[in-house]
Amino acid sequence: MCGIVAYIGNRPVVDILTDGLRRLEYRGYDSAGVALVGKNSLRLLRSVGKVKNLVDKINKDWPDHASICGAGIAHTRWATHGAPVEKNAHPHTDEKKNFAVVHNGIIENYAPLRENLIKKGHVFTSETDTEVIPHLIEECFEGDFIKAVTAALKQLDGTFGITVISPLFPDTMIVARRGSPIVIGVCENEAIVASDVSAIIAYTKQVIYLNDNDIAVVKADSIDLRNIDNVPVSREISHINWDTGAAEKGGYEHFMLKEIFEQPQAVANTLRGRLDENDATAVLNGLNLTPREIASVSRITIAACGTSLNAGMLGDYLFEDLADLPTEYEQAAEFRYRNPIIQPGSLIIAISQSGETADTLAAVREAKNKGASVVAICNVVGSTIARESGAGIYLHAGPEIGVASTKAFSCQVAALLMMALKFGRARRLSRQEGLDIIHELKRLPELIQEVLKTSRHIEKVAKKYSRAENFFFIGRGYMYPAALEGALKLKEISYVHAEGYHAAELKHGPIALLEEKVPVLALANDIPGKDKIIGNIQECRARKSPVIAISTTGDGEIKNHANDVIEVPRASIFLTPVLSVIAMQLLSYYVAKERGCSIDQPRNLAKSVTVE
Ligand code: F6R
Known about the structure:
Elements: E1 3-12, H1 13-23, E2 31-38, E3 41-48, H2 51-61, E4 69-77, E5 92-93, E6 100-104, H3 110-119, H4 132-140, H5 145-154, E7 160-165, E8 173-178, E9 183-186, E10 191-194, E11 206-209, E12 214-219, E13 222-227, E14 238-239, H6 244-248, H7 255-261, H8 263-271, E15 275-276, E16 281-282, H9 291-296, E17 299-304, H10 306-323, E18 327-331, H11 332-335, E19 346-352, H12 358-369, E20 373-378, H13 384-389, E21 392-394, H14 407-427, H15 431-452, H16 455-465, E22 470-475, H17 479-494, E23 497-502, E24 520-523, H18 530-542, E25 547-552, E26 564-568, H19 576-594
Parallel strand pairs: 17-18, 17-19, 19-20, 20-21, 22-23, 22-24, 24-25, 25-26
Antiparallel strand pairs: 1-4, 1-10, 2-3, 2-4, 5-6, 6-7, 7-8, 8-12, 9-10, 9-11, 11-14, 12-13, 15-16
Helix pairs in contact: 3-4, 4-5, 8-14, 8-15, 10-14, 10-17, 14-15, 15-19, 16-19, 17-19
């Protein structure tokens, strides 16, 4: 995820900026850059890869850097618009080099803005959405820095956390936010700004968090806050009492927990700008498929591994239910060793958080060799699978650092539902059915928040069952892939043997294993199939297995059947699996914590599996 650091004051600015960038490295990034302003001069350096590459470049090109004080901005970029190459790294400037900008977030209307600015003579040098910002500021500039930035920001749709510097105003930095966090560290005769407190707390623990649409005019000796309508606002100074290690994790004990709690925002990022209420469909330009091509797809195969495969299984249900399309899911590792039947009209969907998983990549290559259309659903922009597929949907979930995949799953399902909606609308869904799905998707971040609010209760349930050595997770229909994902989460981080099973299959063998020491987690949400799962719960209780049920808030009936109940909000059948999986992510996390496991780096596991 992109990171911002900016400084103004009398200390050597380059050291402070590069130190800040190093502290943001944990967020994941693919390129970095820095810009400094002196009176009427702007220096800019960018490089691909690690911050170390940028530092090497600074040492070579700016041998005097240790003596430069004043204002500077720096950035680590995690590519969204445009490949991870030097010209796309931040900072970006206008062609006169009057304004330099670092930006986190996504400018949704950048394409028409860019087109308009090009018509007015502006020359663009990158593929980024960000570059419109300095050009717009320049276009609005009539001698007043703040007015120009404010006027430019008013034209932006989407999200931003930005810092702007100008050689015309070397004693001023302008900082603003809408949707992407920005924090200002309050120090004496200097100020440090960052997208994340971890880059600040080595300098000060007194910080101001900007609210949406706040603009701060930051000088070494003053911080002046206003809103986008130029009305002065005041924000509290907060005291941070985390140490540096905790700050990287946003105050959470583990990356996994941080990423679980990031899900409302991550899903909102996946959905942003992609839901079109006018046509009651999803806007997924990256698929590169015309409506005619969509209508001519006759069969879908979804290939993926692990958690991504579990999301893919849900995709199977979604495409069949919403688009009437024969769909199958396939372990990517099997795909190329079978004889995958590719016919005209076959579409392969490869799902991979990292975009580097060897088996999924091999499936993409096999499918392409056989002449199939391939689209990828990836999180990491510019990853091999995304590049080789040539078409797809990026999740924009931000980097996933904990080895156990959490937020990627929810975002993958959101992306699959949007894709199924688009295909469904092109084939059979009515406008009203399309709108219903859009409205439900829009509520998803809020519904996830409701699940997260129950974490204390889930922690108690986890503690109660944390000594069990064997677990079953059971579900039916849409909740079957959710059961598989719940079991995968528990086994990988807590080393408890957990099996995900179709509830109806239990009695075809595994029921022999049930006894009082083997708890069963049953997905008993109030959606079609609930009555049958209650029957399966009875079967488990009759074998003395304690049952934890995940049910729908307010559904009192389940309490009569289960030993413990975890409730998730009522939602449609399409999104109930996501809410239940999030509850199980929390359950697994707290079981692992209780057992003293290495949660972010479980034994034997790698974040990206690049071997077969
Ligand atoms: C489970 C997990 C793995 C990955 C799998 C695929 O928590 O992290 O099962 O889901 O290795 O990885 P990607 O999605 O990067 O292809």
